[in-house]
Design a protein that fits this description.
The protein has helices spanning about 5-15, 30-35, 40-60, 65-75, 80-95, 115-125, 130-140, 145-150, 180-190, 205-220, 235-245, 250-260, 265-270, 285-295, and strands spanning about 160-165, 175, 280-285, 300-305, 305-314. The protein has about 325 residues and is mainly α. The chain is elongated, with a radius of gyration of 25 Å.
């Protein structure tokens, strides 16, 4: 390859990565429509729209260099800066333009799973049907958006086995809700007069998160428990991951499957290694008591003189 051709290619590459000086007035509805036609998830479209409105209020969005400068000077985490850059990058893509996109290195921080007593306190004190949504989240460990996709026909109302549709381009998976949750769900289905094809909770993940946050904060103030404000909705998923990890004797692949992760690095974030499981002893003397223990997923410890001993996690 001769030097002249190399020079031309370098000039072309520099031209392609040069920031445009003016992309015109930001048209957020058009950007969101472009995202919709390109099969972006509705929740992603909403988030990008929100972030673009934030940028529009605080800097000159018609000039990519000013947008980069504003984000660079902003006092926030690199993860937040990355999200803002990615949202603005979608605008650039929708206009069929190119620019020199900055890269911000995320610094991951692992969250601990909340204590079982904190999760249970919130479930016991919020109003119905939010309490049902949280009980199902505790049992299934699904993403909030996956809960809003559940239909009545996805759940075996006899056994509690649940077919989950995977979000974030993951495969579907099977979960199981506990017997007490199942009984509460059946009452809810009857009250709401739902049919097999009905969406159980016709809401959005954003609305679910907002309802939870408001209810949790009210509980924290009413009962003088500021620690409750640290329990996020996604922490119910962390609670499930950590619990299953301990109950399966540290079976990492089992947890990965239950949470529906494609990348093992994602699963690591949902496990608190030093968590301890408390066990409740169960003594059964009749067939009915044994069947009930099995329904509650209790583990057989042994039997002696006609007495069967089980244990189940608290």
């Amino acid at each position: 390859m001769n030097q002249e051709l190399v020079k031309q290619l370098l000039e072309q590459l520099q031209q392609e990565t040069k920031d445009p000086s003016d992309i015109g007035k930001l048209n957020i509805p058009n950007t969101m429509l472009w995202m919709k036609t390109n099969a972006y998830e509705p929740t992603t479209i909403q988030r990008v729209g929100k972030e673009l409105r934030y940028l529009e209020r605080n800097c000159n969005t018609s000039n990519p260099k000013e947008v980069k400068l504003f984000i660079a000077n902003k006092t926030c985490s690199n993860a937040r800066k990355e999200n803002l850059i990615e949202s603005y990058n979608i605008v650039i893509q929708s206009l069929s333009l190119s620019w020199s996109k900055p890269f911000y290195q995320r610094h991951d921080k692992k969250r601990r799973a909340p204590k079982e007593e904190s999760v249970q306190f919130i479930i016991n004190h919020v109003r119905f049907p939010l309490s049902l949504k949280l009980k199902m989240s505790r049992d299934l460990g699904q993403r909030p958006i996956e809960l809003t996709w559940l239909k009545v026909q996805d759940i075996d109302l006899t056994t509690g086995k649940t077919d989950l549709t995977g979000a974030k381009h993951t495969i579907g998976r099977e979960g199981k809700i506990k017997q007490d949750t199942l009984e509460l769900l059946k009452k809810y289905i009857k009250r709401e007069n739902l049919n097999p094809t009905s969406i159980i909770f016709p809401t959005t993940s954003d609305n679910l998160s907002t309802d939870y946050r408001l209810a949790r904060n009210r509980l924290a103030e009413k009962h003088d428990k500021p620690e409750l404000k640290q329990v996020q909705l996604y922490d119910f998923r962390r609670r499930k991951g950590t619990r299953e990890y301990k109950l399966s004797r540290n079976n990492f692949l089992h947890v990965k499957k239950i949470l529906g992760h494609k990348d093992a690095r994602s699963t690591e974030k949902y496990i608190t290694e030093d968590e301890q499981i408390e066990w409740i002893p169960i003594k059964c003397t009749t067939d009915q008591e044994i069947q009930q223990a099995i329904k509650e997923d209790a583990i057989l410890v042994g039997h002696e003189n006609g007495i069967w001993y089980f244990k189940k996690p608290a």
